[in-house]
Design brief:
single chain; Rna Polymerase Sigma Factor, Chain: A; 8 helices
Length: 196
């Protein structure tokens, strides 16, 4: 069986048993997901690259020291390491922001009506993704984190609560406030365009 056809579990075992090439397959398999997660949280490509590299240095170190206990969730474990490094960065920078409160609720990111093959639709989709990313980047850290995990990493609220060490209700609340804030930002942007 080729290395790229093996499961994460088998590749981890191969690496622990001395096949160094197995870690390269694991990194290549999950690098886009991990990097996207980090860059959407820190909003800085260079910093995201540093945290991404630190994440896999820790992964390799932990595997060599046999600290990883396989529960069938290798990528979740890697994302947890990345998450902790992002948190450490924000703690060092003292850049944690507060969560705001409101009473409205709209799910802005739940529409999957995209991906026609025309050039116009591809351009429109690219613009929408750019606009959504800009909105996400303006959210307070805790809200941005939940949006990224839920809508970009396709994690359940249970997984999000485990990764962030908060209750499911707190994770749901953060998502709710994030969507409220994004809606307000969109409304403010629309008002600004109508005034100009």
């Amino acid at each position: 069986m080729r290395a790229d056809q093996k499961s994460d579990f088998d590749l981890v075992n191969d690496f622990v048993n001395g096949q160094n090439s197995a870690i390269e397959v694991l990194i290549n398999r999950h690098k886009n997901r991990v990097y996207t997660y980090v860059v959407l949280l820190v909003k800085n490509d260079a910093l995201a690259e540093d945290i991404f590299q630190d994440t896999f240095i820790k992964v390799v170190d932990s595997l060599r020291k046999k600290k990883y206990k396989d529960e069938g969730r290798f990528v979740s474990w890697v994302l947890r390491i990345a998450h902790n490094l992002v948190i450490d960065h924000f703690r060092r920078e003292k850049n944690m922001r507060t969560v705001s409160n409101d009473s409205e609720d709209t799910d802005l990111l739940n529409s999957k009506k995209f991906a026609e093959d025309t050039i116009e639709e591809e351009m429109a989709l690219k613009q929408v993704h750019g606009n959504v990313r800009q909105l996400v980047e303006q959210l307070p850290f805790e809200q941005r984190q939940v949006v990224v995990m839920r809508h970009f990493m396709d994690m359940s609220f249970k997984e999000i609560s485990q990764h962030t060490n908060v209750s499911i209700n707190t994770a749901l609340g953060r998502m709710r406030y994030a969507l409220i804030n994004m809606r307000k930002m969109m409304e403010n942007k629309e008002q600004a365009f109508s005034l100009s």
